[in-house]
Amino acid sequence: MNKGTYLEADPGNSALVDDLSQALSRDEFFLVYQPTIDLESNAFAGVEALIRWRNPARGVVKPEMFIPELEHSGLIASVGKWALDTACQQGAVWHAKGYRFSVSVNISIKQLESPIFVDNVNDALASSRFDPALLVLEFSQEVLLTTGLALNDTLSQLRGLGIHLAIDDFVPGVSSLTSLERFPVDIIKLDRGFINGISSSPDNVELIHPLVVLGRSLNLLIVASGIEDIEQRRRLQGNEVRFGQGFLFSAPHEAEQIDQFLENFAIFSGKPL
């Protein structure tokens, strides 16, 4: 079966959890990487690592079908650690080739709540010798609503390692904007659904500029996810959003294809996020 052919799976099926529990030891997970582009210079700025599952019987299962089960079953701890280790190792390979760009890895709130998570990140950096300044950990906007003192301390410890933190799937809103000042984050990634609406919704466009202004005052970078057409890119640039990713630039690819993408890329600055 083609690697890109997805099969549906029942997220409530116990057989799915059984398969997932064995997937790591059977080497069925793999990472794909989606480029992030500097909208101003068109330069290559980084990649986001995304986990995929290729099961012999199920084919390639859609992430939205198995990632919730990883969360519910508690398997996210071991699988998330594997993803972090693998992304850091691959990032070190790219940097050994002379490329200097950021590698982003998605983490769950359950990982952040683990008392050993900071140690896991430190171990991943040490074993791969990956530059912590080029590692970005992304977590959902949900953390802004649920975090307590312990979780905020974890975020501060992660920042202390020299890495960068990003809020993923961010939807601008007044309460969200004011809460940003209380968290040690570096990057805001605008939700792809929100970006999808900027071509038709004046309200979405009007919400971008205040976020950019606040981001500048807090020294935050703004990244737009899910850019699919030139009009979306034009409106984002018009509101001074600096970085973006989406199918307009590239779909997610495995590492070997990213190597080719880098070789073919017209302008490469090596400037990380």
Number of continuous helical runs: 12
Name given to the CATH architecture: Alpha-Beta Barrel
Mean pLDDT: 87
Enumerate the spans where pLDDT stays under 50 for 5 or more consecutive residues: 1-12, 266-273
| Order of adjacent strands in the largest pleated sheet | 2-3-5-6-7-8-9-10
> Would you tell me the structural class of the helices and strands?
alpha/beta
Task: Determine the strand fraction and express it as a percent band.
Answer: 15-25%
Question: What would the CATH topology be?
Answer: TIM Barrel
List the domain count as a whole number: 1
> First CA to last CA: what distance?
36 Å
Bin the helical content.
40-55%
Written account of the structure:
This protein is of the alpha/beta class. It has a single domain, classed as Alpha-Beta Barrel (TIM Barrel). It has 12 helices and 10 strands. It has an 8-stranded mixed beta barrel with strand order 2-3-5-6-7-8-9-10, surrounded by 4 helices. Helix 3 packs parallel to helix 5. The longest helix is centred in the N-terminal third of the chain and has 21 residues, at 76-96. Residues 1-12 and 266-273 have low confidence and may be disordered.
